[in-house]
Amino acid sequence: PFQAPDGHAWTASTMSRRVAAARTFFRWMVRTGQLDASPAERLSAPRVPRHVPRFLDVDEASHVVEEPTQDGPLRLRNQALLELLYGAGLRVGEAVALDLADVDLTERLVRVMGKGGKQRVVPFGPPAAEALRIWMATLETDGALFRNRDGGRLSARSAWRITRDAGAANGQPGVHPHMLRHSCATHLLSGGADLRGIQEQLGHASLSTTQRYTHV
């Protein structure tokens, strides 16, 4: 971080914003005739480091998704949810929006409504299929795949809490659903999957978004 005149440490991101603000201000001064030229055009903003998504390694992810908290049917639900978030790389909103009819256990495919109303079909592995089979066998009616204690659709906030608690219980504080999604993509890539195929699975509109996972 840069030590500013006021004694505060400015990060590269803060410096970039301040340089941009200075350029905008002095361009306005030139445009309104108060200056002939902008001294801020000589300023150069520092490079902002690219954010690398945090992910779990394979063993860490396995412990989190296989050992959720809570007991009885809720534990079965939690494991099915976590296995699907990790095994298919779904967004949390996509997962909680699923209905029973969206899941094909035989083909190990799930039909997902993604961002912008775009539908895609996503594969998942045998562990997620087995967890889903056990959980779905407890459901007596059609409708939401993941349900709360009262039988209503599980909320995204509850899914975040389930993921966080499973991480904390397995020595991984700060785990959230998107981290399982990052982990899925990272493990697919490190296992030799094609980047374009990972893009399609995750539902990224741009390949550049998927390329953040090339840090492996």
Q: Could you characterize what this model shows?
A:
With 216 residues, the chain is mainly alpha-helical. The strands form two sheets. Strands 3-4-5 form a three-stranded antiparallel sheet. It has a two-stranded antiparallel ribbon with strand order 1-2. Strand 4 and strand 5 form a beta hairpin. The radius of gyration is 23 Å and the shape is elongated. It starts with a strand and ends in a 6-residue tail after the last helix.
Essential attributes:
mainly alpha; 3-stranded antiparallel β-sheet; 9 helices; 47% helix
Number of helices: 9
SS content category: mainly alpha
Strand fraction equals 5-15%
Elements, N to C (H/E): EEHHHHEEEHHHHH
Helix content: 40-55%
User: pLDDT below 50 for ≥5 consecutive residues: which ranges?
Assistant: none
Oligomer: single chain
Write down the Rg. 23 Å
Q: Number of DSSP strands?
A: 5
What is the distance, rounded to the nearest whole angstrom, between the alpha carbons of the first and last residues?
A: 26 Å
What overall form do the CA principal axes indicate?
A: elongated
Q: What is the average of the pLDDT values?
A: 87
